[in-house]
Every structure is written in structure tokens, then in C-alpha cells.
From TrEMBL:
The keyword Ligase does not apply. Keywords: RNA-binding, Signal. This is S-layer protein C-terminal domain-containing protein. Transmembrane segments: none annotated. It comes from the Bacteria.
Amino acid sequence: MKKNLRIVSAAAAALLAVAPVAAGTVSTASAATEGVSTRAFDPSLANVGASINVRNAEGINGGENVSVLRFYSHLDRVNDNVPSVGITDGGSTTVYLAADVTTDSNGEVTVSATAKPVTTLQANTQYVVVKTLVQITGLKAKQKYNLNVNGGTKTIETNANGVSGTFDLAQAFTTSKKAFIGAPYVYLNGTNTRVSSGSVGLVKGFYSVDAVVRSIIAKYGVGVDTAAGVGGSANGTIKGEFSQLTQDVRDGLSKAVTLNSDGTFAKPSSSITFPVTIQAGNNTESFFVTVSPEAIDVDFSFPRIRFAGDAAGVVHAGSGDVVNVNGEGFNYVALNGTVNVPLISNRFSATMSENNSTAIPVKVDASKVNTKVAGVYPVTVSATNAEGKTSSVLFYITVGDAGATYVTVQADIDNVPVYEINGNIVTDTKTTVKNGDKIATYGTVTVNGKSYTRINSADSTKFVETKYVDGSTKPVAATPKTVMHNSYIYDKDHKRVGTNKLAAYSTVNVYGTTTKLADGSLVYKIGDNQYVMADNIDGTARVLSHNAYVYKTSKKRADRRVLKKGSTVVTFGSPYTFKNGKAYYRIGGPAKQYVKVANFK
């Protein structure tokens, strides 16, 4: 390959100016080298062609190392009777700025003497990849061919083994324009109006991370810019989303207010502004949200809810109001008793909207009340009008001893087991309390070196582990993940927990990052002393030692793909043995996709 300054033809310059993106046919390559002449097209000779493609230029956003690019050299056409023709990988593969590479009518490549190989890619930039010392094999021995490469034609002659002399290939490509293609943006739900920043208000009694997250999701959505305009996805696959909204809200609020373990906080004295991350594929942006200490989105079309225990004239609209039910006949429930839903319904009423006094029914949701465990629990009363708009209010009722000391459950899991303890025998009751519940406690006991805290009453035999009520365990957000392989549940000693298993393609909440069991197995925590193998969720990257088909059964292929030798494939879980006796790894789903174990290193 020539690497010097030279003047190229106007045709070659024009060719570079319109070089196609990514996988288009290139117009930039190949110098006269061993066994290759520079004679033009000869109609008496058979034709062979070759090119190199860049497969993932559209996924480059800027800042990536050039090694992330994927290249594919291939034959374009051979009009001679040579069934075993092929192409060699050649020598080096180098990326240059497009301005540093030119070609001529013979398909020869010239790289400027001052050109430097690209190491870091930029967005919306034209490049050329140059592959040197390529050869075509399997041709007829001692025969001349027209070689069509890089938009030009030259004559080549094979040796006694039917192998051509060496030549170079080149391909022009352009990286994606991050600000236009595939970039995330935020819009108002309902109107799809694009916004550059957001604002939500706090409503009375709902001062919590979860309440702010819900308000943001209710008001805003994330879309993706596409080449055709804007839409919910790019190329039908890349979706816009708030990638870590709960964590961003928690981080933003914590810089201005003190957060309790359950994410609640005191009403702030002024507005709080912080960034949240929006994402579309590999593209991420920051979207700034301002949280006002007062409600800012008032809608008079929502139902109006009234509580008989309120002062005259008090009405509730929208969501977030908390009412005081002290002294009401339903605010206390005996242990193992029943919530008096009919009485609650009688004390609340609702009308269609601010300007429509037509009565509508209220709905009482007491599903979060655990009458088996003494504590303080939320109840929601809501009403939905003919427009489908819902208003709601919240109040708390007490289960068990109203005069007890209540503590907040702080756990790194959603559901904390309740145990029965008789003597030194500890039995799981299959009852749980939820992270964030406020429960009554009555001292501790130690059994087999583990501390338990008594709940419900002073003479109760029900306990929870002390670590969940003494503040020593810090809450961890649950992250939903897809299980890609049928999975058993294990304890910390890698012993199975029960007989149940998680089905492939089901969703499970995991807590924190991966951890290791006593034997070193990498796992995710999914519950109290309950773990699932991380390989069944995240998979394991493996390198193919052979080209491989993707199967759905032992006899039928899943699709027409051929996974290339040397490529990396993520497999999930241990292998399956098919009816033909061969072992296969699962590589995707829910459609069946398997690759033979024998094809991996």
C-alpha cells in the first residue's frame, strides 16, 4: 500500500465525497502490490470482486476505542467456475480519517504520508478502514482475472496454487450523529410535547423518594430521536427510558434534605433541582427536574373526596393527601382481626369533579394491612370518575397494641420472614412483613447465636431477625431482572431452598450486586438467605472456536444466522442435553436459541 502524498483524479475525489455509510460498497482502497498489475478492465477475463464492511458504525456515539468496530471481508462476485474460492484475512486493519485516504480508477489506495491511525472514534465523523495484504484463494492456477475492488478494476494473476497476489481493501463509513439519531429526549405524557427540563410538586403527606419518582413517571416519558424525526424507539429496537430514576431522585434529594431509611423526608423549605439520567441504547443524557415543596399541577376535573371526620369544607383532589383518623371506629384492628371496610366506606364520600356534584362510589384498599403482625399500616381510599381520572387519600390504622413501641423495618429485601420460636426451635411461619412497615416490638432473644426481636405482644411467640429492626441493615433497592435459565434457589451454603424453581424468562427482583456463597459461587440475593446463580441471569461470555449455527431443536435451526469463529457469545446457565445426545448452551429467548457446546473453546 502506498503511503505518500499524491494528486488523485477528480473522479476519485468525488467518490470519497459521497462515500456511503457503514455497509455500503466502498470507494476507497487497494494499492498495486505483489502479483497485481494496474491494467484496466479486460473483457476477455473472468471477474472477481472483494470488499470490507463495517458492521456497527451506527452504534458509535463518540469516545469509543477503535477496537469496538467490527469488520467483515468478503468476496463480492466470481464469474468463473471455481467452487472453492475464498478470501484471506490479510495483514493489518487500520482506520484513518476519510480525508487522509484516496483511491483511483484501478481501485488503488493511497494513504497520506502524514496520516495517523485513529485510536478514538468521534460522533458524526467520516472514516476509512484499510485492510492490507488481502488475497483470493481457490482460483484457477496461472490465470488472469479482472479484480473489482474499491470502485476500480485491475488485472491480477494467480500462482501455481490458484492464489492471487496481495492487494488492499478499504471501506468508508460515518459514525452516528448522536444529537440526531438514537439520542434520548423527554416529552410530556399526553401531549408528546418535547421539554428541556421538568418540574413536579410535592403533595401534602407524600414527602418521599417513591412519591417523587411516581410524579415524574406520571408526567414525563422518554423518547428517541430517529433519522425520520422523533419516536419512541430508533430502528424499532432502541427504547428511551429513565435508566436509574429511583437512584437519581434519592441522590438529588439527599443533597438538600435528610432522607429516612424508608425514603421519606420532611417537607423542604424551597425547591430542589437535580439531574436524572435518560437513556436510549448506548446514548445517555441528563434531564434536570425541579421538585417544588407545594403541589403545582392542579386539575379541577379530578374527583373530590370528602371525609366525615374533616373540618367543614375540606375536600381532597388528586393524590397525596393524608387524613387523620384518630378516634374513628376503624382506626384500630385487633391482632388477627379484620379491617372494617364497610365502616370506612361510610365515612368517605366522593363527587365527579369540582364542577359536577354527582356522587360516585369510593374504593377502599386495605391490602397492605398485615393483621398477623402488630404494626401501623396504610389504607387508601380512592374514587374514579367517568373520565377515568382518580383521586385518593391515605390514612394509617394500627394493628395490635395501640400503646406499643413501633419501629420501622429496614431490610435489604422486600419481604422479611416472621418466625415462630418455641424453646430453641425456630420455624418459618411463611408470614412476612414488608420493608418500611412499622411494627410493634417487645425485646430480643438469641437462638443458636442469632438475635431475634419479639413482635405482636409481650408474650408472643412470633419474631423477626433483629438486624431488620435495629437499623443495622441498610435498605437496598430491588432491581428486576430476567431469568434466562430455569433456576433453583439456594441458601448461603449452596443448599437448595425448598423444591420450587424460577422458570426461564420469568422476572425476579434482585438486591444489590452479585455476591459469593461460601463455596465461591457467584449469585444474586433474591430474599432472606435466598440466592440464585448469576450465570442464569447475566450469562457467561464465551468465544467460539468454530463457526456455529443457532438451533431451536436438535434437528431444526432457529434462524439463518451463522455465528463466526472467534466471536464472543453470551450463554446462560448450564448446558442442556438434547435428544441427539449433544450438549447445547442457551444463548437467548424466549424464542428457543441454542448453540452446541462443542463449538466453544
